[in-house]
Amino acid sequence: MVVEIKKKIGIPRSLLYYKYFPLWKTFFEELGLEVVVSDKSNSKIVEIGGRYAIDEICIPLKLYYGHLVNLLEKDIDYIFVPRYISTTFGTYMCPKFLGLPDLIRGTMDNLPPIIEMDVDLRKKPKYASAIQTGRQLHRSLRQIRKAYEKAIKTYHYFRNLMVKGLTFQQAMNIINKNIENFEPKPRKHNGVKIAVIGHGYNIHDPFINMNLFKKLRSMKVQVVTLENLPLEIFKKQTIITNTLKNYWGNEEEILSAVNYLFQDKTLDGLIFICSFCCGPDSLIDELITRDAKKLNIPYISLVLDEHSGQAGVITRIEAFVDMIIRKKRGQKITKEVLIQTPPSQFQG
Ligand code: SF4
User: Fold this and answer.
1) Is pTM beyond 0.85 here?
2) pLDDT, position 244
3) Would you tell me which CATH number, out of the four given (3.10.25.10, 2.30.40.10, 3.40.50.11900, 2.60.40.10), belongs to the domain 186-337?
């Protein structure tokens, strides 16, 4: 019997991995490839990535380079580097995504063949992007269609798991174990609800965010991320003002999430995680700060890079959560005093 050896395609565990990996993985596996992912982010990966990237670039991109180098040690036949241009009507991704395959080709040698996927919803449907990718692997239209349909189905299941409250990693575990119709159980918490918002690659990579979620959960806080919110809220375009329009795709999602969360009366605070040197993040940080101030919602932004110290970040988070707990206690006591005080005491 001849055992067919599958070709291996490497996917860096960075950038849009934290959004589309279940879709990509299913697609390539259905096309007969073995999917190999780089190791979890760590200081060695960021240090190696920094040798290829220019100094002023954001940490997610430095990590992307480091993950590519990490994959080279895994004996892969191809490397997948997608080009996401536009994923919602009227918006563009950040320029780093628009030119990602060109950037990588122009700055790194000795890479195996790069398999691309150009996603530009202004010009072509998603299925056309799948055909472009499948053709580079010499697959037939029939094979590509079948792989694409299964990938989309897996992706929708994965997204719905996150809407039900699972984290990225928990939802991935369900997908990897092929568990169908999974229903998560609610977690116990201390009544403090905090949303942690930002790009998926900052939110779901514990190395970048310095295990922020572990810390919040150890404090028994109920944590909500953008992916846990109803999918319908991302279908409408956000309005900033009549003259100021947002045209960044990722930030569009963040602003939709923030607008929704700011109307949620059960929300106690918001943490925005942004990358140092990120233009789009710094713009919306200013917008969120203004709205949070107007609505009197506790808000902090954590601007992170590879030099951020874990102790400093954790101290800020502890202080933020303590302040919210004290605020909530204060509100409760004031309410109880008002309810218990007999009306005669107010009559002077
Ligand atoms: S959106 Fe910001 S953090 Fe993301 S790749 Fe672009 S510059 Fe980097």
Assistant:
1) yes
2) 64
3) 3.40.50.11900
Domain segments of the chain as ranges: 8-175, 186-337
pLDDT digits (tens, 9 = 90+) for 275-296: 988 988 988 899 999 999 999 9
- Cα separation of 186 and 177, whole Å? 21
Pocket flag, ligand 1, residue 61 (CB < 6 Å): yes
CA of 184 to the centre of ligand 1 (A): 32
Mean pLDDT of the chain: 90
Cβ of 199 less than 6 Å from ligand 1: yes
CATH of domain 8-175: 3.40.50.11890
Ligand 1: nearest atom to the Cα of 277 = 7
Q: Report whether residue 114 contacts ligand 1, using a CB cutoff of 6 Å.
A: no
- State in Å: Cα 185 to ligand 1 middle: 34
